[in-house]
Amino acid sequence: MNRLLLSTVALAALFTGTAFADDKEFPAKLAGQAILPANTLTPAPSDAPDFLKTSGKFTTPGKRIEKLGTVDGKDGARVTDVKLPLDGQPIQGFSGIKTMADGTFWTLSDNGFGSKANSSDAMLFLHQVKLDWASNKVEVVKNLFLSDPNKIAPFPITMEGTQKRYLTGADFDIESIQPVADGFWLGEEFGPYLIKVDALGQLTDVIPTAVDGKPVKSPDNQTLSVPANPTAKMPVFNLKRSGGYEGLAMSKDGSKLYGLLEGPLYLEDGKVEQADGATALRVIEFDIASKAWTGRTWLYPLAEKGVAIGDFNMIDETTALVIERDNGAGTKDKACADPKQPKPDCFDAPAELKRVYKIEMSDANVGKAVRKIGYIDLMNIKDPDNKKKAGSKDGVYDMPFVTIENVDVVDATHIVIGNDNNLPFSAGRAVDKADDNEFSLLEVGEFLSAK
């Protein structure tokens, strides 16, 4: 490429904000780690029905299995070391995090065992945790179980006939969290909905999603039903399963929420939305005071090997952190010889793209692509002080998990990052062991200050 053409391309990139800025990698150093063991359970509340005292009874398709510990957890062809059903409710699947002023963090377990069909005995709950970077331990300060005693849900819930009406993973798939003075806003995937609970975990609002004045619905939306006549048209939905609000950020003044869909919207011709020549996900603005969508949106273009986002939190008024990932898990040194023939002792699709991007979404690019300022590589975090308690590379901490779904700013130079271990179905750290819940403190001052 000649110098004139190169200069032209560079200028185009500068003025359009689309080009090669997202290729800039920033360094990250491990400053601390805290681990919650995979098989960490808590009893259901004393007033919960007996049905909820155990969980994971419906994870074998077409069967109900009551005997505890008789079903292998599996990640594809690989058997993990955690067996179902469980005696209690698992504290797992952390899928959103928020740093609090008192030094604790709020996070949440998602729908349970991965789908609406198998999670009717998985209770929905939030967790307040302390992360002790010195002892490498996670302390669960509080579990807040969600319920619907005031019958706010616009559809029958699993625990419809009970007094407390606890919510389960067959009702909602909660994936992201924003604490507020009177409770919590949660991003949800089945609808997808924005939902609000009060400080007691009681449901107060269920708000359907709309983009450009049109409803956004996934195939799990409770308003959809299959027609009685097989020749009739199927119900219309424009978002794939598990494509809802994996990310939910809040403006620094607390007036707006920004929901980031995990998957792209589908257009009438069957194609997906794009920006800058790449598959793009919508960021959708919501006004908290009026409890209404503002009509303002942005597009988040995925990287070449990116397939989904994992979490989303604001840094300041216009910039934010976004986890972007592929669907791989495990490391290449233990890759299967033939990825088309998965085996129990190797990774058929090792992790390649696990990143945290810094993005800019300003008034100037409403309706357009966000600007990707740069990223840190979660497969290559420097660990010169040997802070890690998990991982096998000398001087490097990596996160070869299929889902990494927790990121937030801790201070001017540090962020917190954590995986969703999909208990007992994800094994990315080892081929035959269910992943623990790993929270890590990363020193990324240059990244956070990048313009």
CATH class: Mainly Beta
Instruction: Return the average pLDDT rounded to an integer.
Output: 94
By CATH, the topology is Neuraminidase
As residue ranges, the low-confidence spans are 1-21
Percent helix among the residues?
under 10%
Q: Give a short account of the largest sheet.
A: 5 strands, antiparallel
Number of separate domains: 1
Instruction: Give me the secondary-structure category.
Output: mainly beta
Order of helices and strands: HEEEEEEEEEEEEEEEEEEEEEEEEEEEEH
Strand count: 28
What is the strand arrangement across the widest sheet? 10-11-12-13-14
Silhouette: globular
Q: Measured on Cα atoms, how large is the radius of gyration?
A: 21 Å
Number of helical segments?
2
Could you walk me through the main structural features you see in this protein, from its secondary elements to its overall organization?
It is a single chain. This protein is mainly beta and 451 residues long. It has a single domain (22-224, 234-449), classed as Neuraminidase. Helices cover 4% and strands 38% of the residues. The protein has two helices and 28 strands. It has helices at 3-16, 445-449, and strands at 29-36, 41-42, 71-75, 78-84, 89-90, 94-99, 105-109, 125-132, 137-145, 174-180, 183-188, 193-198, 203-211, 214-216, 245-250, 256-261, 274-275, 278-287, 292-301, 308-314, 319-325, 354-360, 371-377, 381-382, 396-397, 404-411, 414-419, 437-443. It has a five-stranded antiparallel β-sheet, with no helix packed on it. It is globular. It starts with a helix and ends with a helix. Mean pLDDT is 94; it is low at 1-21.
